[in-house]
From TrEMBL:
Protein name (database record): Probable replication restart protein PriA
GO cellular component: primosome complex
Natural source organism: Nocardioides euryhalodurans
Region (Disordered): 1-26, 147-168
Cofactor comment: Binds 2 zinc ions per subunit.
Pfam families to which the protein is assigned, alphabetical: PriA_3primeBD
Gene that this sequence comes from: priA
Keyword entries, A-Z: ATP-binding, DNA replication, DNA-binding, Metal-binding, Nucleotide-binding, Primosome, Zinc
Assembly behavior: Component of the replication restart primosome.
GO BP term, example: DNA replication initiation
Residue span, Primosomal protein N' 3' DNA-binding domain: 46-145
Sequence positions that bind Zn(2+) 1: C407, C410, C446, C449
Length: 671
DNA sequence: GTCATGTATCAA
DNA sequence: TGATACATGACC
C-alpha cells in the first residue's frame, strides 16, 4: 500500500535513483529543445501521425524549427519523433500556440516542401474514417500516393489556356439534363441520379458534364469502375475538351506516373480528374462536380480497411464541399434511389417514347427452345436478322459463376427437398448435396416439370461460342471474357460472346443484344442478387445501337426481367428499396459486421454500446474456418452516424488497451 | 507501435 | 523483500 507521502517510504537509495533518472530525462528534453530555435511566426505544427493505432487518431503538436519555418506548411510530409520512434506525419495546421501542457518536441525533418494533403482532403479523410469506424491513417494511405522524389522535382505542365466549347449531344433524350448542365456551367451545384437510356454514350455524357463544369472555371472528379471504362471516358474527355485538360488516376499506373499525375492535380495544373475508386480522394482544385458511373459495380468498394465505397466517399465530399453530384448508370442502385427518396438529388431519366425508340426489349422463356438447344426460337430469329446488319452481343454467364445444379429439361434451379437450399456437386462421382444443410439428394425430381435429370447449368463463353458458331456458319465469332477481354469490336456482322462485365464496345452499338441463361444470376442467395442481375443485363443492353433489339432468355415473370423489359430501373430500385426497408436491410438500416476470433468478437460486443435500438445478430462462424466468427450490428438509418461513432469508440478503446484486433466493416458490400 | 510506470505474484 | 511478469496509459 503506497503511503500518502508518495516517495517518502522508498529506500533513500531508490529515491535518489528515481530522482536522478527524472532529472536526466528532463535535462535531455531541455537540451533537445534548447538545440532547436523555434520559428518566429506560428511555431506550432499540428500533425497527423501515420500510425495504425485507432486511439492515436488525432492531431499532435510539434515545435517548428526556425529553419523549417517556411517549408513546414499545412499539407507537407514530415518526420517526427513519437514515443521513441521516427514516424511519418502530415502537417495539417500551423498555430501560434499549443494546448498541450507539456513541452513540444521539434519536428525532426520536413520530408519535402510539397503540400500533398489539401485541407479539404484532411476533412474528407476524417469524415470517411468516422463513417467507416476506421483509422484516418488507413484512409490517408488510400488518399495520398507514395512519394516519388525524382518526379516531385519536375514541374507539372499547365493545362492549355482554352478548351473546346462544351457540347451536350450525348445527353439527348434525357430530362432535365440540359438544365443540369446549364446549372453546372452557371457555377451551380446540382445533384442528380441519372438512369441512362439504352444506346447512350455515357462516357461522352460524363465528359460533357465535366466540360460544362469546366466552363464555370471549376474542376470535376469522375469515378468509374475499371480500367476499360477509364479508357472510354479518357477518350471522350479528349474528344470534348482537347488534350491536356484532364488527368487519369488509376492504381495500375507505376509509382512515378501515379505520383506525377497526382501532383498535376494537387498543384492545380489539371482540374479534371478521371479514375477508379481511389481517385475519389483526389485534391481537385475548385471542385464543381463529382460523378460516379455504375455505382452498383462492386469494384467501387475498396477492399482495404476501412472499406470505403467510392459513391459514399463522393457523397461525403459533396456534403463537405458543396459541389454538384452525378450518380449515373444504366441500372440504379437502391442507395441511389435513396438519394431521390429523401429529395437530396433530382432524377435525370428518359421519357417513355425515347426508351421505346432506343431499344426494343423482350424476354423469351427458356422453355420455348428447340431440340434442347440453349437459345429458344424467338431469340434465334432476332440473332439471324440482326447479324445481317452488324455485330450482335451474346451475354453468357461465366462458367463457375454458380456451382449449383438445375433441371436438365426446364432449367429450374434444383433445390433441396428438406430445406430448399441449392443443390451442388461436391465431386465427380458423389450424388448432389444441398449447399445449406448438406443432405444428399438421391431421388431428386424437378419441382416444376417432374423431370429427374440434373445438369451443371453453366456453359462458359467458349462453349456458347462453339454452339452458336455451328448455327451461324460463316459468321465470325468473337469471344470476350476471363483474361481475354476485348475493349471494342468492329462494326461488321459478327457474333460477340461475352461474359457479364466483359462486353466489348461496338463502334455504333450492337444490332442486337441477347442475354442467355437469365435465370442463372437470379439463383444466387445473396443480398443483392436481383439488383446485381439487372445491373449486368442493363449494362449489356445499354450497348445496343439506337433502335436495336434486346432479347433476354429467362423467367419472364421475374421482377428483375420485367424491369429490364420495361426499362424501368427506377421502379425496380424503388421496389427493392421498399423490400429492404421491410427487412431492415441497408440502406434502410445502417449495418456493420464485426469479424474476428470468437473471444475478440465477444469482447468487442461487451464493450460496444450502440445507440438506443441497436440490434446485435450473432456472432456466427464464418465459412469453414472455426477460428473466425462474425457478428452483425444494425440500427435504423437515421442512427447510422451514431452507430459508426460507437464502433469507432470501441475500436479506439480496444486499440489503447492493446486488445486483439477485430475487423469492423460498415455497410459491407455483401454478407 | 514504444516507453515508463503501477500492481500482482511468488520464491526465498 | 526483491525479482519478475503483466497491465495500463501516455505518446505532442
Amino acid at each position: 500500500m503506497p503511503s500518502p507521502e508518495g516517495e517518502s517510504d522508498m529506500l533513500p537509495g531508490l529515491r535518489a535513483t528515481v530522482a536522478d533518472s527524472r532529472a536526466k530525462a528532463a535535462a535531455t528534453r531541455k537540451r533537445r529543445a534548447a538545440e532547436v530555435e523555434a520559428a518566429e511566426r506560428d511555431p506550432v505544427a499540428r500533425v497527423l501521425v501515420d500510425l495504425p493505432l485507432a486511439h492515436l487518431d488525432r492531431p499532435f503538436d510539434y515545435l517548428v524549427p526556425a529553419k523549417d519555418a517556411e517549408s513546414a506548411v499545412p499539407g507537407v510530409r514530415v518526420k517526427v519523433r513519437f514515443a521513441g520512434q521516427d514516424v511519418d506525419a502530415y502537417v495539417v495546421e500551423r498555430a501560434a500556440e499549443s494546448d498541450h501542457p507539456g513541452r513540444l518536441a521539434p519536428l525532426r525533418r520536413v520530408v519535402s516542401p510539397e503540400p500533398v494533403l489539401a485541407p479539404e482532403v484532411v476533412a474528407l479523410t476524417g469524415a470517411v474514417a468516422e463513417r467507416y469506424a476506421g483509422s484516418r491513417a488507413d484512409v490517408l494511405r488510400l488518399a495520398v500516393p507514395p512519394r516519388h522524389a525524382t518526379t516531385e522535382a519536375k514541374p507539372s505542365a499547365p493545362a492549355p489556356e482554352t478548351a473546346s466549347a462544351a457540347t451536350r449531344e450525348a445527353w439527348t433524350g434525357h430530362e432535365p439534363a440540359a438544365a443540369f448542365l446549364a446549372h453546372l456551367t452557371d457555377g451551380g451545384s446540382p445533384r442528380a441520379v441519372w438512369s441512362a437510356a439504352p444506346a447512350t454514350d455515357w462516357a461522352a455524357a460524363l465528359a460533357e458534364a465535366a466540360a460544362a463544369t469546366y466552363a464555370s472555371g471549376r474542376g470535376s472528379l469522375l469515378v468509374v469502375p475499371d480500367r476499360r471504362d477509364v479508357d472510354r471516358v479518357d477518350a471522350a474527355l479528349t474528344q470534348v475538351l482537347g488534350e491536356g485538360h484532364h488527368v487519369v488516376l488509376t492504381a495500375d499506373a507505376g509509382p512515378a506516373a501515379r505520383y506525377r499525375d497526382f501532383l498535376a492535380v494537387s498543384r492545380g495544373a489539371r482540374r479534371i480528374v478521371l479514375g477508379t475508386r481511389a481517385a475519389a480522394f483526389a485534391p481537385v482544385r475548385d471542385l464543381g462536380l463529382v460523378a460516379i458511373w455504375d455505382d452498383g459495380d462492386d469494384l467501387h468498394a475498396e477492399p482495404r480497411a476501412p472499406y470505403p465505397h467510392a459513391r459514399e466517399v463522393l457523397l461525403l465530399r459533396a456534403d463537405l464541399q458543396g459541389c454538384g453530384v452525378l450518380v449515373g448508370g444504366f441500372a440504379r442502385t437502391v442507395e441511389a434511389q435513396q438519394l431521390l427518396r429523401t429529395g437530396w438529388a433530382r432524377e435525370i431519366t428518359s421519357p417513355r417514347e425515347v426508351l421505346r425508340a432506343r431499344a426494343r426489349v423482350s424476354v423469351v422463356e427458356a422453355g420455348e427452345r428447340e431440340h434442347g438447344a440453349r437459345v429458344p426460337r424467338a431469340a434465334y430469329d432476332v440473332l439471324r436478322s440482326a447479324t445481317a446488319e452488324g455485330p450482335v452481343l451474346v451475354q453468357s454467364p461465366r462458367a463457375g459463376y454458380l456451382p449449383s445444379l438445375a433441371c436438365e429439361r426446364c432449367r429450374t434451379p434444383a433445390r433441396c427437398a428438406a430445406c430448399t437450399g441449392p443443390l451442388q456437386l461436391s465431386g465427380p462421382t458423389d450424388p448432389p448435396r444441398c449447399r445449406w444443410c448438406g443432405q444428399q439428394a438421391r431421388d431428386w425430381a424437378c419441382g416444376e416439370c417432374g423431370h429427374r435429370g440434373l445438369r451443371a447449368p453453366v456453359l462458359g463463353g467458349a462453349r456458347t461460342a462453339e454452339e452458336l458458331g455451328r448455327s451461324f456458319p460463316g459468321l465470325p465469332v468473337l469471344v470476350s471474357g476471363g483474361d481475354q477481354v476485348r475493349a471494342t469490336v468492329p462494326d461488321r456482322p459478327a457474333l460477340v460472346v461475352a461474359t457479364p462485365g466483359a462486353e466489348p464496345l461496338a463502334a455504333v452499338g450492337y444490332a442486337a443484344v441477347v442475354l442467355l441463361d437469365c435465370w442463372l444470376p437470379l439463383a444466387r442467395a445473396e443480398l443483392r442478387t436481383d439488383e446485381e442481375a439487372l445491373r449486368r443485363w442493363a449494362n449489356a443492353a445499354g450497348l445496343v445501337r439506337p433502335g436495336g433489339h434486346v432479347v433476354a432468355v429467362g423467367p419472364a415473370e421475374h421482377p428483375a426481367l420485367q424491369a429490364l423489359v420495361r426499362w424501368d430501373p427506377a421502379g425496380f430500385a424503388e421496389r427493392e428499396a421498399a423490400q429492404r426497408s421491410e427487412a431492415h436491410l441497408p440502406p434502410a438500416s445502417r449495418m456493420a459486421t464485426i469479424i474476428g476470433t470468437p473471444g475478440a468478437v465477444d469482447d468487442m460486443l461487451t464493450l460496444f454500446s450502440g445507440p438506443e435500438g441497436t440490434e446485435v445478430l450473432g456472432p456466427v462462424p464464418v465459412g469453414d474456418d472455426e477460428d473466425e466468427v462474425r457478428a452483425v450490428v444494425r440500427v435504423p438509418r437515421r442512427l447510422g452516424a451514431a452507430l459508426s461513432g460507437a464502433l469507432g469508440e470501441v475500436q479506439r478503446l480496444r486499440s489503447a488497451r492493446k486488445l486483439e484486433a477485430v475487423r469492423v466493416q460498415v455497410d459491407p458490400f455483401s454478407l
